[in-house]
Amino acid sequence: MATASISAHYFPEEPKEPIVNTASNSQSKSKEAIEKLSKKFDARGVYFVADYAKSIGNYIADVDGNMYLDVYAQISSIALGYNNPALIDVAKSDKMIRAIVDRPALGNFPGNDLEEIVGDILKVAPKGQDKVWSGLSGADANELAFKAVFFWYQSQKRGYRADFTAQEIESVMKNQAPGSPELAILSFERAFHGRLFASGSATCSKPIHKLDLPAFKWPKAQFPSYKYPLEDNVEVNKKEDERCLQIVEDYFKTWSVPIAGILVEPIQSEGGDNHASAEFFQGLRDITLKNGALLIMDEVQTGVGATGVMWAHEKFDLQPPPDLVTFSKKFQSAGYFFHDPEIIPNLAYRQFCTWCGDPARMILAGGIGKEVVKHNLPARAAQVGDYLYQKLEALQQKYPKYLRDLRGKDRATFIAWSLENSATRNKFLSDMKNAGINIGGCAEDSVRLRPTLVFEEKHADILVAAIEKVLSTY
Q1: Which ranges of the sequence are coiled-coil (predicted)?
Q2: Is the domain of 450 the same as that of 303?
Q3: Which residues are catalytic?
Q4: Is residue 321 domain-shared with residue 387, that is, in the same domain?
């Protein structure tokens, strides 16, 4: 089977184009459903109520009978399209039934299939990583990674040994040093790493994500802000890399407490699809090595083929590889990959909880990985992305005011651009929905594309036509 036909292979009944029966301001069934839901659940962020039984492939249905081409895909979380038959087979397996009905406490009572489940996930692990620890969400994955970093950092100081001092044991019960040490994770302005307590402390994209939440006083370095197009601004952007790396260097020298690790996204996603060069990321790798810290690559949104490779940071060929790589979203599971045995805490029950992840989701992750590899979907996404990017470049020439700073070249369909302001961006998203396209934003004024890995040229043509139709009215 040719990879070009993968969408038709999975979804022979997929619509040929969007179906819009009701305008966004008159979706009576969806509005009624939201009102009912709001009495039991905070539904203020709901765009529309979906009908997942009728959603298929690259199209998401709503309860009003609309069928939208979905280039947002549950905030980058649907890898293989809605109602993918291969994943439905995985979901119906005896292994999945056991994982759902008798969900095990994996740290104490793993099933006799756990080694196989973990092995399937590791078949698509980032280069250089051969171990995994599982979590429940992207934010949880990052917080688990923080714990691993802090445990490792302290173990390097005391020696990788099992005994703690009496002072450490006594003080930690009072949340005081030395048992509860003052340490930091360095992240970046415009970064998004989750909304929990520690992940919220590392997040720095929108105030709404963390208002009223007590926070660790951790440093935020500046992530490069490039000038576009990249090929016309090589020297300027090189100096920007150097400037930002110097800020990181300075923080390691001047921050009030030791910095145990750096947390960074290969592409800052929620914060605006901000890119940086391989040289910048290698610079971060070098800084961590020099300062005895660890490097965490947050691949929650960029991972699993979205940028044309399985893991976005692999494009940078970092030497040595990152110490930890966190994942979630398209993998339908969560956790972090690693390779150094000393990242495993020196005693059991330190990195631990009742479930230590979710074997049902881990099984699904293995099924997704199998399909991605079988059909070489990262390479296919790269082909489609090149096709789409060229069309968007042509539109940028025609509508430079509304399609600015186009970014994501050579990053498959992980593409974004900026409009003139947030009001115009929000209007654009609404108008695109009325045109049959479910599309998302990021930062204050940007639009981001997050289609599935089975998004093809025929879908790109529909998307571009809708964009031009909308922009022609501005």
Answers
A1: none
A2: no
A3: 192, 298, 329, 354
A4: no
Distance (Å, rounded) from C-alpha 118 to C-alpha 144? 17
Residue 79 CA to its chain's centroid (Å): 12
**Per-residue pLDDT reduced to its tens digit, 308-320:** 999 999 999 999 9
- Residue-level pLDDT at 3: 47
What range defines the domain where residue 247 resides?
104-357
8 A C-beta contact, residue 313 and residue 126: yes
Compute the distance between CA of residue 437 and CA of residue 341 in angstroms, rounded to an integer. 46
pLDDT over 50 at 339, yes or no: yes
91: exposed, middle or buried (C-beta count within 10 Å: 0-12, 13-18, 19+)? middle
What's the angle, vertex CA 198, arms to CA 197 and CA 199, rounded to 5? 95
User: What pTM was computed for the model?
Assistant: 0.96
For helices 359-374 and 377-398, the axis angle rounded to 10 degrees is 80
Q: Each residue of 130-143: pLDDT tens digit?
A: 999 999 999 999 99
How does pLDDT run across 52-85, given as a tens digit for each residue? 999 999 999 999 999 999 999 999 999 999 999 9
